[in-house]
Every structure is written in C-alpha cells, then in structure tokens.
Task: structure prediction
Amino acid sequence: MVDLDHKGWRIFASPLVGFLLLFLGFPILIDLVYSLSRVSFTNLRSPEIVGFGNYGEVLGDAQFWRASWFSLRFGVITAILECVLGLGLAVFLSPLIEKRSWLMAPLMLPLMVAPAMIGLMYRLVLHEFVGPVPYYLYLWFGDSPSFLNAENAFWTLVVVETLQWTPFALLLFYTAYRAIPNDVREASAIDGASARQILTAIELPLMRPTLIFTFFIRFIDGFRVFDNVYTLTGSGPGGSTTSLPIYIYEAFFKQGAIGKAIAASVILFLASFVGLYALTWLSRRGKGAAS
Amino acid sequence: MLKFTKITLSALALITTSLGAANAAVTVLGWPGGSEETALRAVAEAYNAQSGVADADKVELLFYSRDGFYDKLQADMAAGSSAFDINLLATYSIGRYASYMEPVDLGPDAAKVFGESVLKTMQFNGKQYGVPTDLSLHFMYYRKDLIDALLADPAARAKYAEISEKYLGRRLEPKAPDSWTWDDWAATALYFAKSVNPESPVRYGTVLQMKNLLFNIMVWQSVARANGGDWMDASGNITIDSPAYRTALELYKKLYDAGASPKDSLSYEYAETNAAFGSGQVATALQWNAAASELTDPAKSPAVAENVGIVAPPAGSAGRADHIHGLGLGINKNAKNKPGAAKFLQWLATEDTALLYARSGGSPALLPDVAAKIAKERPDLVTLGQYAGAYGYVMTGATSASAFPVYELQAKEFTGYWSGQETLDEALANTKAGMEKLLKQ
Result:
C-alpha cells in the first residue's frame, strides 16, 4: 500500500474538493443568498437582500408545520410498516426463496416502477368508475369507501407507499437473515432454544445493523415523499396531503415565492442534518453497548 | 497536417453557416401533444410554403412535454433564453410572462376575426401580447334521455319538487337544461343522486371536480360569477368575501355532502370527470369544452355518447357566465428574429389562417360570421364562439402576474372548506388575506 504524505493527500483530494465546491458549494451559496432575499423569477439576477424575513415567514406559516407533521408521520409510519412486513416476509419466505431463488424477481417488481407511475396507476385503480377495487367492493358489498377524501387520503397513501417499498426491506432483511451462520441456529437448538427464542435472542440481534439501516433509509425516503403523492392527490383538499417537498415545490413554482421556498429547504436541510447526526450518534452508542 | 487543418476549418465554417441559418428561422414553442400541436403544425407548414416568406423567416416548431410545461417555460424565460422566438402563453399566466415578452401589433383585422372580448384574453395592462389561438370554456353536459324522462313523468316531477324543497328550501319544477338556473341544476343533481333518491336510474346527479387544483377553480367559479362575484372591484378592493362567493361555495358543499357527486370528487379533475360521466352513472357534468369530442364519440363513450346534450352553464342572479381563457402565441423578449416572429403572428391573426387552424383541429374562438364559414366541419366552434361572445368573462385581476398563485390559493382554501377542514368564514378570510398580499405585490 502506498503511504501518502500530507502533500500527496492534498494533490489527490483536490479534484474531489473542487468538484464538491463547484457542484455543491456554489448552489448552496446561491441558495443561502436567495433565502435571505426578496426574489422572484423577475429579479433572479438581482435579488434584494432582506435578512431573515423568509425564515420568519416559513416558521410562522401553519402550512409549513402541517407539511412537516405530514412528512414526519408518513416517514415514521411507512418505515415501521415496511420493516415489520419486510422482516416477516423475509423470515417466513426464507426457506421457500432458498429453494426457488427466482421467486425474488417477481417480489422485487414494484421497485422497478417509478413512484410517479405508481401514483398515476392508483388514480385508475381507485377510481370509482374505472378502477377494479371500487368495482369489486360495489359488486360484493354494494358500496365503496372514499379512498382519497381528506380523512382517508393519508392512509391510502401510506398503503400505496408500503406496497411499493416493502420488497426493498424484504430484500435487505432476507440477505441479512441468510448471512447468519446456520451453526449458530443449530447450536441454539441443541441448547434447547425454541424457534421464537432463536428469532428474538439470536437472529434479530444479529440482524440489528441491517434493521436500523433499513429503517433509516425507508424513513428518509418516506419523509421526502413527493412523486406518488403529487400524482395521486396533489397537495390534497385544503393542503391535507402536502409533504415538505410538495410545500417547497409549490412555494417555488406555483406561488413564485422563491426566497420562502429556499428558506424552507434550508430549514429542512438543517433539521435533516441534526436528525441524521443524532441517529448516527445513537447508532454508535448502541454498537458500543452491544460490544 | 495542412490538409487536416483545411478540412477542420471547412467543417467549422459549414457548421457555423448552418447554425446561423437555424438562428435566422422563427422558432415557435407550442403546446405539445394535442389538437393544438396538430393545428400549429398544419399552419406552420402552410406559412413556410408561401413564396413570399424568406428562408430566414421560415417557422420551426419546438415542443416540451406537457408535464410542468409552465414551470419549465418560466425558468427558461427568467434565464433569458433565446432558444425560441415565439412562445405559448395562457390568459391566467400572461401577467407572469409579460415582463419577458414583447407586445405585438396584430393589425386591424384581428378584431374582425376574433372579436374584442377574445383578443382581451391575450392582453395585459392594455397591451396585446399574443394571438389567441385556442379558447377554453365550459359546457354543461347532461343526459338527454334522463332529463326527457324526468320532464315527461308527473310522479318524477312531484318527487323532484319534494327533493328541491327539502334540500334547497324551494319547490322547483323540472325545466329544460337550456333554461336552468344553478338551483335548477342543483335540484336535478340531487334528484338523480341515489343517496337522495334511491329510485334514481343513475348513481349520481352530477360530478364535481373538486381536487385542489387551480383549473378546478376555473370550472367552479362561473357559479360565483353568475351570481355577481368578482375578485376585486374597480378600486382594487378584494371582493371575494361576498354573497355570490358564499352562495357558490355552499352550493358545491351541499351537493357533495348530500352525495350528489362521487365520494372521491375531492380528488377529481378533468380525466376523472370524463370517466365518471362516460360511465353512464352520472346525469350532469360541468366540464371543459375540450371534453365534447370524447363524450359524444360512441367509440370513446359508448354508454352515453348518443344521449349527451350540451348547453351553456346555468344562470345565476346576475345572468349566465362562462369562464374563458385562451392559449396563444406571443414574442419572446430575447427572440433572435423579432421581425420574423411578428410577421408570423400577424399572418396567424388573419381570417384565412384562423380558418385553416380550425380545420386542422384547433379551437379558435371566432366571431359568428367567421365561424359560420366552417359550421359544417366544426359545429362545436359555432357554439364555442356563441358562448364566448355572450357569456365569456375573465375575473378582474385574473391576467395579473399573481393570477396563478391566486388560483392556487383559492383551490387550497376552497377545497379545505368543501372537505370540512375549514369553515366557510375561515376559507374566505384566508383567501381574502392571501389575495390582498398577492395582488398588491
């Protein structure tokens, strides 16, 4: 292995640093300036600096907090559901998939569909007059609920998101589950452990890093949800299905409130950074305790 | 080496020349993927085929995808793009783009082709910014078979009167659709709703498009306008919190809550409305004129096509009103070939070109004597022109730079009221406050 000195590191790291400065640093700098400015599409090149007014407007906007609550709730609930279902399926289907590995391909199919297409697909699937779900509900029960009104839209969206992304959790959990050496299971069985004890005391603790990682990934994806929600319900009646990315998009493009939209995205960036840092810290602490 | 250099320089010269030629052409950014694109292609071809058009003024067409079209257009124009000389514009977004565009003189004959009210759909601050190529307004679609049966049956008429008294507070008699008031329409919608009248032959009396979407507000607001509603008065005061707006908002909520419209109406827009009406389970629908071809085509709507009737939107206390907005073409401020662009637009505003555009599938709003020349081929355009001339309106302030966000605001607040998340007072107060801020920017 080549042992690089300080100067060597500088030389090799400089292209990467240059790239980051150009493609991340510059836009971030522009964003910071815009977030402190009164700016619209008509004065993009000459923004008027107004201080922290945009931040105040965002933090004082009830819709921003409503969108934050929607994103947080959506992210947590879908991540939990996907992880629980994915784990259950991974453990339950493991013997079957081990023998017939091709089964994994159809199980992964939902991941191949773009989220925006999923939204459009469910617009048809749930439509009272052309969708199969209401059709059979009318046929069997004589009625069909409103899937997308203000009360039910959140849970309909949760189900749609969970159905699409549970296979992702299943894939990771199955891989982690199969990676546990069989010797460990056999030794536990010889010691008299029941199947439930093997699962809860042996397998799940060994899968914990994957469980935590998958939960984080799914939470982040759920928190930043945009495509399928936007194509299925838009921002919802009265803004009831406005996630944070939808809030930012609408402020930017629909209202032309560029400063406000960017201030909201900066707040989101800072909150995400703090949240992720806290989670990483917790994860490290957990690892330390386990070791 | 010398040979290589010569070849390279020649190639560069050729590329530069061809780029120059391309730059000299008039590039038109049109509305993609529909009848507007087909019609624009036809007139562009006809224009280019004229012997008097110089090569440098020939028209080339450019199309984005429809998704996020206006967002992309806005970003391009704000960036000072000169990739197109002529761009699409719409009545509700004209104020947003006017600062990136050049006013255009269409000549004195344009008013004889389109009429002043239609030319106004492309005006901002008294200046003409474009040629109105396609006009959109709303029709009231209804099932002729159902209405005829209702009018002919005394027992049904009695039931109708009973329902109207219970829900609307007045005993109403069924009428022919072309003389409907909004209350008559509401009574009809309630009569044909299974939740109100279990003997109704269809599931719903109407289909309301109530998704939180600005275009749905355009459909609904004719109820408010027919009762005298407007965004602002002559002094610039916001007049949204008015009896007209209250009546119109309450009427939709009453129908939705009574089950006269599908349960998921709060997620319905254009496509869902067509699907619902086309299913044969809905008696009436207030819908865009563009849906006429689909709903009256037996191949596309076999359940209803033979029985679809079309009338203007019903009347209110202030008469009949029909929201109109136009799509049109205007000149980009950063255009490379402004004289060529102006020539093409002036040609587009002549009678012969407007008729060619109409024959090629476009929907220009033409004055009655002009529309009469294509009445056999495009009878729908005669109706379009009649309704636009007689009932067409644009809300005061609805061509301003803030029109788009105002519609967005109304969509959010009014759907909040219809879905029961806000009271009527809250929705109107929030809308008024938001509009005051937006329209005074």
Residues 55-290 of chain A form a domain with the MetI-like fold fold (CATH 1.10.3720.10).
